[in-house]
Write a structure and sequence with these properties.
Layout (H helix, E strand, L loop, with lengths): L2 H46 L10 E8 L5 E3 L1 H16 L8 E14 L2 E13 L4 E15 L2 E17 L12
Parallel strand pairs: 1-6
Antiparallel strand pairs: 1-2, 3-4, 4-5, 5-6
Length: 178
């Protein structure tokens, strides 16, 4: 192989190495984004499944929760206590009534910066009692942190848009939303 041929191949190999490195970085970024989508979706899933005592598992030890007028919590243990008590707090408006909470997440957008990330998502929620219910809408502004290879919530801030009364409640026959 001549010297000219070798010199021509070296830039092509360097370009190929750069392309492979760039593709690898992009794949890792896409995997992070997918994991953050899963994390964000898991929180309402646990609420919808009435696993309030498992919500705090999604948070870092020093996480902060700001649910506006519904309260704040600092640290994983306090966040556990907050979510475990939240159904009772919601039911204060309707003591003795059955409660059903279903939350639906929309348009989760994230930005990854190494082992930290930020995200914004919108939600709709239906809070249903025996004889009436409310439709709720708002926005979550999140900060995430990767700890030991796992993405967790570092901070969640709730911005409530509205709570609208809705006359339908739980049916007496089967307990489903009317």
């Amino acid at each position: 192989m001549s010297q000219d041929t070798r010199n021509a191949e070296e830039p092509e190999q360097a370009q190929l190495a750069d392309i492979v490195k760039s593709l690898g970085e992009r794949v890792l970024l896409l995997e992070d984004v997918q994991e953050l989508h899963r994390l964000r979706a898991e929180l309402p899933r646990r609420i919808n499944d009435e696993r309030w005592d498992r919500v705090a598992d999604l948070f870092a030890q020093d996480a902060h929760l700001d649910y506006a007028h519904l309260g704040q919590a600092e640290g994983k243990s306090a966040i556990h206590d907050y979510f475990t008590a939240l159904p009772g707090l919601i039911q204060q408006d309707k003591p003795g009534s059955r409660l059903l909470v279903k939350q639906f997440l929309h348009a989760h957008d994230v930005e990854v910066l190494g082992d930290r990330a930020t995200g914004v998502s919108f939600f709709e929620e239906r809070v249903v009692f025996d004889d009436d219910s409310a439709m709720v809408a708002g926005k979550f502004t999140d900060t995430y942190v990767r700890e030991n290879g796992t993405w967790l919530f570092s901070r969640i801030e709730l911005t409530l848009y509205w709570v609208l009364p809705h006359p339908a409640g739980l049916s007496a026959q089967d307990g489903s939303a009317a």
